[in-house]
Amino acid sequence: MTTASSAGPTGGDMLLIEALYEGNRNATDTLELDFGYRTKSRLRAKLGSGAEVGLFLPRGTILRGGNRLLANDGRVVEVVAAPEDLMEVRCADALELARAAYHLGNRHVAVELGEGWLRIQADHVLEGMLTGLGADVEALRAPFEPEAGAYAHGHQHPGDGSGARIHMMDGQ
């Protein structure tokens, strides 16, 4: 996965990305991020090529695997959803699966929906709740692409840290 080392103002040789790219050009580099980092609008990271990049995207932007970004040098960068620790939830029938989804939604948990399953980020407390509801829960490592939610653009809570600041990726 792509990593970053420090926060602060961008250096003169650091690439800047301030916009999504909707054009026809193919990507020439990649930016692999887990879902937590794909929800940050201010981030310092490294591209697949090793180039350091600063993301300064509009607040509320959630990057998805396959999105393309435009760097200030004209480079098109493809976002790759990095594999992460998840739990896949399956139930005996649709009503039990809906019940599990309801309880996860009631806790504002990001959920990816699939045919007959739900996926959430690994969490032992939620695993206990779900097994208590009769669900089968299996650990797996995969890219995470949860539902955007009804308030995807600009949904913020006071004090949730969504202000303009650089987020650091662990690992360097």
From TrEMBL:
Note the superkingdom of the native organism.
Bacteria
A Gene Ontology BP annotation from the UniProt entry: protein-containing complex assembly
**Family affiliation:** Belongs to the UreE family.
What does the UniProt entry say about where the protein is found? Answer: Cytoplasm
Q: Does the keyword Chaperone apply?
A: yes
- Protein name per its UniProtKB record: Urease accessory protein UreE
Q: Which residues does the annotated region (Disordered) include?
A: 152-172
Q: Where is the UreE urease accessory N-terminal domain?
A: 16-77
What is the role of the protein in this entry?
Involved in urease metallocenter assembly. Binds nickel. Probably functions as a nickel donor during metallocenter assembly.
SUPFAM superfamilies from the xrefs? Answer: Urease metallochaperone UreE, C-terminal domain, Urease metallochaperone UreE, N-terminal domain
Identify the Pfam families for this entry: UreE_C, UreE_N
Q: Please list the GO terms describing molecular function.
A: nickel cation binding; unfolded protein binding
Lineage, opening ranks: Bacteria, Pseudomonadati, Pseudomonadota, Betaproteobacteria, Rhodocyclales
Kindly list the GO CC terms recorded for this protein. cytoplasm
Q: What keywords does the record list, in alphabetical order?
A: Chaperone, Cytoplasm, Nickel
